[in-house]
Design a protein that fits this description.
By secondary structure, the chain is α/β, with parallel strands linked by helices. It has a domain at 4-76 and 106-110: Rossmann fold (3-Layer(aba) Sandwich), CATH 3.40.50.11590. Helices cover 27% and strands 25% of the residues. It is built from 5 helices and 6 strands; from the N terminus they run E-E-H-E-H-H-E-E-H-H-E. A 4-stranded mixed beta sheet has the order 3-4-5-6. A two-stranded parallel ribbon has the order 1-2. The two termini are 26 Å apart.
Length: 112
């Protein structure tokens, strides 16, 4: 198991090693944040065609468009009660607190 981070902690690898590490991976779990920080396409391109690529996390967009980029599964969050979620976020809640407070569902989409 390798963890690549822009700001690595002890035991993590720096994100700059992605092109070296990802071609060796059988499974690559890439956070939705990679879409925001513009690293997504480079990370996916570094994976072998046989690598199972998963985009995950609260920032993962539940969009089948990602399947066109070689993603095999998307694990993200669907807001089911916007008022509750907005109230919690307005109070400074983190994602774990929002999840416990209700108003969201965790979903997985799989390429068929």
């Amino acid at each position: 198991l390798w963890v690549l981070e822009k700001r690595p902690l002890e035991g993590d690898l720096p994100a700059e090693m992605a092109a070296e590490v990802l071609p060796q991976a059988d499974v690559a779990a890439i956070t939705g944040t990679s879409l925001i920080n513009h690293t997504f396409e480079g990370l996916v391109r570094s994976c072998r065609p046989s690598t199972m690529v998963i985009v995950l996390g609260p920032t993962a967009p539940l969009s089948p468009v990602l399947f066109d980029y070689g993603v095999d599964a998307i694990c993200g969050t669907l807001v089911t009660d916007a008022d509750s979620v907005l109230q919690l976020i307005g109070q400074g809640a983190n994602f774990g607190q929002v999840k416990r407070g209700g108003g969201v569902r965790l979903l997985t989409m799989v390429r068929t």
